[in-house]
Design goal:
The complex is a heterotrimer.
Chain A (H helix, E strand, L loop, with lengths): L9 E5 L11 E7 L2 E8 L7 H5 L8 H5 L6 H16 L5 H29 L4 H21 L8 E2 L2 E2 L7 H23 L3 H7 L7 H6 L4 H6 L6 H4 L20 H25 L18 E8 L4 E8 L5 E7 L1 H7 L1 H4 L5 H10 L4 H5 L1
Antiparallel strand pairs in A: 1-2, 2-3, 4-5, 6-7, 7-8
Helix pairs in contact in A: 3-4, 4-5, 4-11, 4-14, 5-6, 6-11
Chain B lengths: L4 H12 L1 H8 L2 H38 L15 H11 L10 H18 L17 H9 L2 H11 L3 H32 L4 H7 L5 H4 L1 H15 L10 H4 L9 H26 L10 H22 L5 H29 L1
Chain C lengths: L1 H7 L4 E2 L5 E3 L4 H10 L4 E9 L3 E9 L6 E9 L4 E3 L8 H12 L2 E3 L31 E3 L5 E4 L1
Parallel strand pairs in C: 2-5, 6-7
Antiparallel strand pairs in C: 1-2, 3-4, 4-5, 8-9
The chains are: A alpha+beta, B mainly alpha, C alpha/beta.
Chain lengths: ~375, ~350, ~150
């Protein structure tokens, strides 16, 4: 008979169908009781071959596909793609369109962070934030619906501008939202920020040191929670981000609690940007003069924007035809999840759940 | 000696003259058995009605806290929802994996459910509403109310599922770390009341409920009770975001509904235990005693639901820490203080 | 930055359409040089399929300044091998696995060169232009111990 006191490593499969893996991420864990000795992320369960599809679609036809990358913040993907094509074509976007783009992408960032906060709350066992966050996200989606008729998959941006101008009453509604949102945000903070149990579950959990964050090419709130002051909006301001007054929050805790603080602060900063854009938006055209048939010159471009999860990059190689020869999407979650084994060293099962949740993964974007 | 439900029923029947007629042609023992069964039947029916509506109450309280309206479609304000849920669970096909340990799998829900019902026998619901006044009532109560854990561990083992086994192991580790403190906290009550009988303890609280004399004991007991119920912030046995569905992962249909019902009945029993030991039981002015008991019990249940809607879950090792490093020493301190004060007075 | 790079490495050339072409066996040296110059952020490694050759494109940026570099390595289709840069950035691991998955590019010295987005039993490299779009695939799923549990 074998010695039952000997510690046995149990392999266990977390996902692809598991409540805490936010879609179809699969983690192969090796457990020693409650302690996780090895984490091996397995991805690809939502791979739809978007990069291959792009090669048989014209440039404008691909815009709806970008909605389906990170479906929690589609506007950001829209912007990332059209910005890359515009750089390839060398098009200047009209002022008003730029302001509309900034407003919608920042609202999209808030919506995405709200989805993250609610889902992460559930991961930690807190039910209440879920419904509170979705209440505010609902209003953002209503505003988007007013603007472009869609609530999740917007396809709002066009190569050279945006598809629709602000309708009547839009500014008032947006202003109304901006007025009530800070109060609601402090509601979430009351539930979570200083809650003893919440602190016990998050402080010092899922540590990603700065060196490892650099090593793995981690971006977005996770990098900023590890002390990296890196945000594409500041370091290489695209669109009209250099005109706004906002700051990039940086924390040095490297843990999941810092990531929470960063995202809450980012929501506040995004709100500030939207407010400034709403105040300053000029009258004018919303579309640049774009040829009917979009045929960029042969060449290649790598264009990046700050998505809600981190740096979202599009590498487009053009061969002079109306379809991209090769399109590569640098998805932020892809690099961030690669660093998961570092964060989960000798963690408990509950910590793995908290850490995976704190990454804010979106499988549509990771698996493409 | 307290008047039990049996005594009062016999009293009523004698007044009506029914008892005399029955004893004319039936031996006394047969009448006794009949009456006891009737009382048990009534209590079980009332309890199952209460627990059915506890599910409704939980959904309504949660949805109110979460800015929703909760079930509204079945009956006015969703009042028929528990019945619809019950029918749905009972007529559902019983699906289970091939690799289970069949007998243990089948027995586990029963092992979980029965002790919870048995506890009802000693809880004094009102001045004359107690099924039996055991002289060691509190010992019986604490012993039997920890038996459902056996059902949980059996269930988790029988399913042959790693998540379920983890849930069972968590439960086993959990119960030894809070149960001791809970029992030690209850000793404070026993010392004050000078009796182990539950009606006796309630009697002793006339005027002053023990929550005022034993605030520390109350806190320890309440935390232990939350862990015993397996509710947020201590719901490790289920913790759906970590262990899928914990010890019920492979259960469905009627077997699952037994676990489900047992959990809600436990919630009601927990409210009853806390009311009896610390909140003065059925004591109270003006209103009938059973109504006082019901009010206090539902306040306790509401607080438990409120906690569930508000707090995140702690980690299993953190509960073990709390249990051994805080609750146990504090419970011992509580006994020392109570004993010391009693000795001096 | 590109001038500095061109001066340091005579084998790095600028093609007529402005690409920085690096020899396959020099990629580690070039990347080490860049990393020491503050280009510490590996954004992406992407493959691309052209008629005569395969390309591996390295996008390298910095966490502290706005500069970016795009390196291109051209390798032959018959023998698509180049050294891995996982020794410089652990983050290269998944990007290189993806290039292998989609183009069949092999990275010498890679710690675990296996398919990442596609199932292990996949036949062929779908992002190659020569990949037939109507090709049928048999997909096998395995559990954590490697036992096959279902076929699609």
């Amino acid at each position: 008979m074998s010695d039952i006191r000997k510690v046995v490593e149990i392999p266990i499969n977390m996902g692809p169908a598991h409540p805490a893996t936010h879609g179809v991420l699969r983690l192969r864990l090796k457990l020693e009781g409650e302690i996780v000795r090895e984490v091996d992320p397995v991805i690809g369960y939502l791979h739809r071959g978007i990069e291959k599809l792009a090669e048989s679609l014209t440039y404008p036809q691909f815009i709806p596909y970008t909605d389906r990358l990170d479906y929690a913040g589609s506007m950001l993907n829209n912007l990332g793609y059209v910005k890359a094509v515009e750089e390839l074509l060398g098009i200047e976007v009209p002022e008003r369109a730029e302001y509309l783009r900034v407003m919608t992408t920042e609202l999209s960032r808030i919506a995405s962070h709200l989805v993250w906060l609610s889902a992460w709350g559930l991961d930690l066992g807190a039910m209440a934030p879920f419904f509170y966050c979705f209440r505010e996200r609902e209003e953002i989606l209503n505003i988007f619906e007013m603007l472009c008729g869609a609530r999740i998959t917007f396809s709002y941006m066009r190569i050279g501008g945006v598809s629709k101008d602000m309708p009547e009453g839009f500014a008032d509604r947006l202003q109304n939202f901006l007025d009530i949102f800070p109060e609601k945000l402090s509601e979430y903070e009351t539930i979570l920020t200083e809650n003893e149990i919440f602190l016990a579950r998050t402080v010092g959990v899922g540590i990603l040191p700065k060196e490892d964050a650099i090593d793995y090419g981690v971006t977005g709130p996770i990098a900023r929670a590890s002390g990296l002051e890196y945000d594409t909006r500041k370091i290489e301001p695209y669109s009209i981000y250099d005109r706004f007054d906002f700051r990039i929050p940086v924390e040095h805790g490297c843990d999941v609690y810092s990531r929470y603080l960063i995202r809450v602060e980012e929501m506040k900063q995004s709100m500030k940007i939207v407010q400034q854009a709403l105040d300053k938006i000029p009258e004018g055209e919303i579309m640049a003069k774009v040829p009917k048939k979009i045929k960029p010159e042969p060449g290649r471009v790598y264009s990046r924007v700050e998505g809600s999860k981190g740096e979202l990059g599009f590498l487009i190689i053009s061969d002079g035809s109306d379809k991209p020869y090769r399109l590569r999407i640098r998805s932020p979650a892809y690099s961030n999840v690669a660093a998961l084994p570092v964060m989960c060293e000798n963690a408990k099962i509950a910590d793995v759940v908290a850490t995976v949740g704190s990454l804010d993964i979106c499988l549509g974007e990771m698996d493409r | 000696m307290t008047t039990t439900m049996y005594d009062s029923l016999v009293g009523i029947l004698s007044q009506l003259g029914v008892y005399q007629i029955l004893s004319g042609f039936l031996p006394e023992i047969v009448i006794r058995i009949m009456l006891v069964l009737a009382i048990a039947g009534v209590v079980a029916t009332v309890a199952s009605l209460i627990l059915a509506y506890l599910t409704w109450l939980e959904r309504k309280v949660l949805s109110d806290i979460q800015q929703r309206i909760g079930p509204m479609r079945t009956g006015p304000h969703g009042l028929l929802q528990p019945i619809a849920d019950g029918i749905k669970l009972l007529v559902k096909e019983d699906v289970h994996p091939k690799t289970i340990d069949k007998w243990v799998f089948l027995l586990a829900p029963i092992v979980m459910f029965v002790p919870v019902v048995v506890v009802l026998a000693v809880i004094p619901f009102g001045k004359t509403l107690v099924m039996t006044d055991l002289s060691v009532g509190i010992v019986f109560l604490l012993a039997v109310s920890s038996l459902p854990t056996l059902g949980i561990i059996m269930a988790s083992w029988a399913q042959n599922n790693k998540y379920a086994v983890l849930a069972g192991l968590r439960r086993a580790a959990e119960i030894i770390s809070y149960e001791i403190s809970m029992v030690l906290a209850a000793i404070g009550v026993v010392l004050l009341a000078g009796t182990l009988s539950l009606p006796g303890i309630v009697e002793a609280q006339t005027g002053l409920p023990y929550i005022i004399l034993q605030p520390l004991g109350f806190l320890i007991f309440f935390i232990g009770l939350l862990a015993d119920l397996g509710r947020i912030p201590f719901d490790f046995q289920e913790s759906e975001s970590e262990l899928v569905a914990g010890y019920t992962t492979e259960y469905s249909g009627m077997k699952f509904s037994f676990f489900f019902l047992a959990e809600y009945l436990e919630l009601f029993v927990a409210g009853g235990i806390l009311t009896t030991l610390y909140l003065g039981g059925w004591n109270g002015p003006f209103l009938p005693s059973w109504l006082w008991f019901a009010i206090k019990t539902f306040i306790v249940i509401w607080v438990i639901l409120w906690i569930r809607a508000t707090l995140p879950r702690v980690r299993i090792d953190q509960l073990l820490d709390i249990g051994w490093k805080w609750l146990l020493p504090l419970a011992l301190l509580n006994i020392a203080i109570t004993g010391g004060v009693l000795a001096v007075m | 930055m590109s001038e500095e790079l061109l001066n340091e490495f005579p084998h790095v050339v600028k093609s007529e359409d402005g690409l920085l072409l690096v020899e396959a066996d020099q990629i580690i040296e070039v990347c080490t040089f860049l990393k020491n110059k503050g280009f510490d952020f590996l954004e992406a490694i992407s493959g691309a399929d052209f008629e005569e050759y395969l390309e591996v494109i390295y996008n390298i940026a910095s966490y502290s300044k706005p500069d970016r570099v795009m390196l291109t390595v051209r390798i032959s289709k018959d023998n698509p091998i180049l050294p891995t840069v996982t020794s410089l950035w652990h983050g290269a691991n998944w990007h290189e696995r993806e290039a292998y998955d989609m183009f069949g590019i092999k990275f010498k010295g890679h710690p675990k060169l296996a398919r990442i987005l596609l199932p292990d039993s996949w036949d062929g490299y779908p992002l190659l232009k020569s990949y037939p779009l109507d090709k049928e695939q048999k997909v096998e799923l395995e559990d954590e111990t490697g036992v096959e549990i279902c076929q699609i």
